[in-house]
Fold these 2 entries.
Entry 1:
Amino acid sequence: MSKVRVSALAKELGVTSKDLLARLRTLGEYAKTASSTLEAPAIRRVRQSYGLDPEYRRPSPRPLSPVTPAARRDPPPTPAPRQGGWRSGPVPLPRNQDLMAAIERLGERFPVFRDHLTAFRALGSQIVFAGMCHERNFTNCGVALVRFSGAIEAGFGFTRELMIFYSQHNDLQGRSFEVAARELGRSARSVTPDTFFMWAPDQRLEIKLKDWSRPNRLAIPLEIDSEDELSLITLLRDHIYARDLFYLTTPVHGANFFGRRTLLQSLRDDVFNQRVSGVFGLRKAGKTSILMQLKEELRDDQVVSVLMDLEAFPSPPQDPTDDILADLRRRLVAELKAHKLRTQELSELDERPSILEFKNALQALLKRLARGGDRVLLMLDEIEYLTPADRIDIAEGDMPRISQLLAALRSVVQESDNFTFVLSGLTSAIVEGGRLYGRPNPLFSWAKAIYVTPLTREEADNLAGTVGAKMGIQIQDGALEALHEASGGHAFLYRNLSSSVVGHLPKDDFQRLMNRSAVLSELSDWRSRVQGNIDEMIQHVKRYYPTEAVMLELLLDDPSDFAELADTEHVAVRRLKDLGLINEEGGSFEPSVVLELR
Amino acid sequence: MTTSDNAEWLANLQTKLATRRLLFVQLGAAHEPARRALGLAGFTTVDVDQVTSETVDSAAVVVIDRLERLIAHRGDLSMGPLREQVFSWIEQGKACILLSRAPRAAYPAVPGSSLLDDASFAKGPDIPGGRVKSWPTCAVDGDEAETVLRKALHELGPEVRGALDRAIFECLLTGTEAIDLLGAREVEAIGAAGLVSSGAHGLGWNFPIHLQELKGALGDVLSDDVLPQAQLGVVSRGLWQVERMLRRTIRLRAMAAWGTNWRHECVSTVQPKEVLKRATEAAYPGANSIKLVRDPLEWLTLGELLELKTRAEIGDLGMSQALWRNFAADIMPIRNRLAHMRTLHPGDAADVAKWLRALEVKLMAVDAQSREGSKS
């Protein structure tokens, strides 16, 4: 391989000389100006860093011929050598006559589609579906699905086809984006659920899509330079690599949910065996995500699930039961209607029923639903809002209607064959105290407490590997180990740390690699950023698990005192282990990583 | 601080918002120009009191302004319903900014998941030089430095001011040691307020000469704190219960051990005369013997009560020495703060709640034993 000027190599790679000089500096190679020449090893390294075969040389450029219907039926044009890396694992040319005709029709409606087709084919990718939008008022919009070459799928983490939405509007509106997003869910094929291409003859397409896109609904403007064969790759890189899918604000389910298979199976069994469970764990351990995932997984099993977040209701010492009952009735009716199921008994109730009225109506309705094999699952999240220990004495405090409500729900479980409920929150006090608000606790020794423990290494690896791949990141074993070690497998901390590391990975590199040193170099800053979150978690342990908090401080102050008390305080010790706050090895205890982050 | 600085800050804020979707932005007295810039950024602004009634259908970014009103629970909204509303907006694809003059540390704890904890944190533009005179409100708007500093300290809230009081006045620290003594959320608070800023060697104070300027203003603002803190009720109620439970347990043990002589035995470690003096001065003008005081334990300090555990007849009351040591280390300073009507610290309510519930469990068993012992 002979010497090449920086400017020539930049042209070959489709980047500016300035970008290439910057890249060379990051690779530890020195070149002063665009006219400096590079030796063969440096050229190989640069090519590798752009995801290209290090030995390729660019032949003299030749323009791509315009695509004619005849050409489209021919085998794909031989790609230019520099594209070889991205067209590895090419998708076979479609042979189905109906598909070919549909492609033809879409090309007639949207001539730009032909350019896109050519660009895809040049990179070993094929259109596998073409048609029109089904939504009313948008039937003049086109829809196509592209299946990428193996190399592109691997490089950008695609495992399914990608939708392209074509609109004829030169002033694209937000509702077109919403229609496109809905079209994603409508496809009978396996389509990438969170990313799609969009095209419209709108000068401000890119700005608009940037504004409308969100992390779980990324719309990429399909604007490619027909003169630049790598333009499509650059487009994907600029959008896919810019995302941070590790960072999540709201609870997750579906494709974003990872692990917890044993716990979910156990909850599922509880639903069908009519057992009542409580899912408890530290703040941000993923409890709500588990409930949402359970709801999703039960959708096809004739289980109508209602997830209620109790944080929106008054909390003792204010009595929340009337508001909870009213909302519960309203949500059950809405959910049953959505499933096209009977609601009469609940619908006929007063909007604010008494506990007894609600119980009787629900029992009557459940009997009717049982005939069709339908079940009802109630999930009460943020259960600590019913037992705010620092505001009221939950054992003897004056709030008996909460006890009565839970007793009514228990009685419905016992007297029907198709109803149960799950509680979730920070504190297990609601199932573990003998008395609740001056009455025998209806859930004591009856409901089962399940603790959300940290992610296992295997679960965490799966999460990181899958999410990383969607951003084109390959995560090395050493990095996976460091991520798990540093976060203790706590779901929020694990994602948060991964997100911090991703924030410092280069976005213009086609071989994005997260290695151990990338994780380690991020740790110090990350620790200081999450200290506040950890402090908040510990404050909650103090509020809801007092003996455990006392023991925890003892362990941090003087492990020998802790060891001395571990036998007599075995319940607290077990719960600390369940919460992932301490680890036991060979009979000795040590604080978990979460505590070391304080 | 120039318009372009604010533009750059806004651009960074928008970038962060694009991935984080939910930001808590602490923007107080030091950053009035940035607050104005945010108001002109084209986002939809909703007052926190109007969150459930305003329509924001077409908004891509919703700024919830005057969040600090939730600290005093003014208006109909509380943090729980607000979280539900904000999350529903995020599910719809909107991004939200919680705009607050007060820091996260100033908000009362909620029973469950916290919206403030869910949010990513952001502060105003960096201030070159850091000194109060160069704070944007002073440098751009020309406001007087002393007034702005007092306003900034006021916005921090009593808990963070209490933490500053401990570090700067009680511990007499002035350098990075003072910062190190603060909790993570307290450091976040004073950083956003402009009191400290990051330099080549980490965080440093923005006040020269032993923090004189800060000390003067902090002293004045602390002495102006006359309204009760949000956690005051919880802390005082908890301490009252803790001490009453402790007395009850000791009384039962003492009666079981010493019979009718329990009063005298209980105060023997202190000095019966001293206890009698306290009782007669405040409530028992005619008592001339400790036997006439209904419950002499009510006239012992918490430290003196705990001292009674050294008597074999009273014993450890079901808790190990190590746990009692930690109890004293946690509770005595809080009790002391309350006794002297000083500002409570951010973690005080959680510490009191922890020991209240721990003691409830432990002492209940001891009380039952003592009652059995008395009967037999």
Entry 2:
Amino acid sequence: MSSRKRHLSLKTLLTLVFYLIIPLCSLLLILQVYPELPKDRFYMRIYWVLTTATVIVILAQLSTHYQRGDTRRFLLNIGFTIATMIWMVGLLGGGVVIPMQWNEYDFSLHMQNYIVLIVCVAALNMMYYTLEWKVYRKDNTLFPSQKETKTSTIIK
Amino acid sequence: MNRQQLAYFRVVALIMAGLVATLTIGNLFTIATKGISVTIPTEEEIHWSIDPLQKEVLFRTSFSVKNQGIYDISDIDISAHLVKDDMTPLFSFNKQDMTVLRGSNTTFDLLIPLNLNTISFFDWFSLMYKNTTLQLLLDINALYMFGLIKFTANETIDVPWSPPLLNLSDNSTVQAGVQSLSTLLDFASGKSISSLSDIISLFSSRNISYTAENGFSFSFYISNYSESVKNITFHIIVPILVIDGALAFTASILAGIDEGGFVFRIQEVGIEYVI
């Protein structure tokens, strides 16, 4: 466990499970159980999930290499948040209006309000990362010898 | 802001992010896997009756919505329009603010009154003799997940229409008479342009009186209104086979030539339910 901590942070592990493994399994399960659903859309979703989730995992891992208050960590966290936003939109179908089909009937799902919710949550996370960056940068300037001690136990 | 407050903020932001991601995966499952589905009634499940006093045709049917999602479906609005092939509306129907609770299978009974007074005689009559395809334009809207997701469906369902007048009588003279009446009504209502040959063919028509065993009756009388103008009267009774009673169509039209040119003038048209 201790060697894993050095190489893969808890944040990275959770990101890997939550953003890559669970959605990928869900999509593959849907494809298996409901073969009548249009496969192209699901392959497109799988492509999106694979791409964005890989980026999210890499950003999560890279951000843990830097101390809180470090500008590089702040930028990586902002990138992480933007990537999760793209991941959610991609998983939902990649647009504000999603055309779907049951039997021979077409219908649309209008996701405007849902996208607004995703953007709001992303903004909340960005606000956190900005505050974290400001608070820790100030502290690091005032107490340059103080090292961050809890990096291994707190989800960064 | 100190580090402790920042930690609390972090917890809130993390929970929100996790919640939205979970909702996204949950919605994907519910929506993609038909956790929500609608059962539309078949032709056999649509019943109808006539209220002669109100001059209404009442259609009764039902449809059901299965909601196996984790949120209620709210504000379900249904708007239906039945139109002819030329998009002339025959009737409209709206029902709003229906709700299907989560985990339930809800059946909605629909009672659709169709007032005969709202449909013009010409539209009615053309349905009586013309093979056509009606279109049912359906608009369905609903909200899911506290209004975060809006569901819309716009469907056009073709309804093949077999004209009862021509089906009721095999008599070719009657069928020709019905066609003549429709042509006359089209002239009189300005929907098509007449020619001299039309006038000559009308003037050469003879009186028809025909009654079938099933109660179908067709009469065509032509009389002199003036020297060059004829008064053409039709009276058609169409039995409604599923219930007692019949629909009676009456039309009286002046046709001919006067100083101003061709004359096609409707004297009287009417449709009524008779027992």
